[in-house]
TrEMBL record:
InterPro entries: VanZ-like. It comes from Permianibacter aggregans. The chain crosses the membrane at residues 39-56, 61-80, 92-108. Residues 41-104 form the VanZ-like domain. This is VanZ like protein. Pfam families: VanZ.
């Protein structure tokens, strides 16, 4: 029970952190790796979905859809938050992260 609370709290905290970081005015950074921000998107949404899947194990489809929806919503809101911009590749990276979390969670659930 306590472990499930940990996962659920992490999921909510992660969603809020993603919202803040997504809507905060962008600071230009030196890009060492091409498309490095896409890796960040995938990692953030992988963590969000993984915490959600662990916290709500009976609601896999809802967690996956909510995680993808959160990514779409954040990208849409960035359109109204200059200098942020809407980017379909960011949404794709978010979705890839969610799918990776699903695969990781499935693997870990089967190895128990």
């Amino acid at each position: 029970m306590l472990l499930r609370l940990f996962w659920r709290t992490g999921c909510v905290f992660g969603a809020l952190l993603i919202a803040v970081l997504s809507l905060w005015p962008r600071v230009d950074t030196l890009s060492v790796v091409p498309h490095q921000d896409k890796y960040g998107h995938a990692l953030a949404y992988c963590c969000l979905a993984f915490f959600g899947l662990r916290g709500f194990p009976q609601h896999t489809v809802a967690v996956l859809l909510a995680s993808v929806f959160w990514g779409v919503l954040m990208e849409c809101l960035q359109h109204f938050q200059p200098p942020r911009t809407f980017d379909l590749l960011d949404m794709l990276a978010n979705t890839v992260g969610v799918l990776f979390a699903w695969g990781l969670n499935s693997y870990l659930s089967k190895t128990r």
